Amino acid sequence: MAMYNPPHPGEFIKEVYLEPLRVSPRSVALKLKVSPSTFSRIIKGQSSISPEMALRLSKCLGRSPESWLLLQDSFDLWQAKQSIDLSEIEPLAIPA
Question: Nearest to residue 68, comparing CAs of 23, 19, 22, 9?
Fold first, then answer.
């Protein structure tokens, strides 16, 4: 079932980890071994979760790397559905 307007993974991290645990983005960035600016871009929704970052997040925050990538894919697909016009795309006729 498709989710309506799924959150960017950065928003999820902020709401589920940073705010409730009262930890700073900078402290998490240091644990992830990435620059604070890199992590800040993710938290602000300006950067996507890469497979490498999914592995880092999995080790640091928990959840599987696949779940981090699924969050990103769900967000990206919903965004694409809002902006792409498929009305002129025709299905390929596959012979039976």
Answer: 9
Both structure tokens of 78: 């919903």
Rounded-to-5 percentages of helix, strand, coil across the chain: 60, 0, 40
Q: Which domains does the chain carry?
A: 9-77 (1.10.260.40)
Residue 2 pLDDT greater than 80, yes or no? no
Residue 29 CB coordination number (10 Å):
19
Per-residue confidence band for 1, with pLDDT thresholds at 50, 70 and 90: low
CA dist 6 and 22 (Å) reads 24
This prediction has a pTM of 0.86
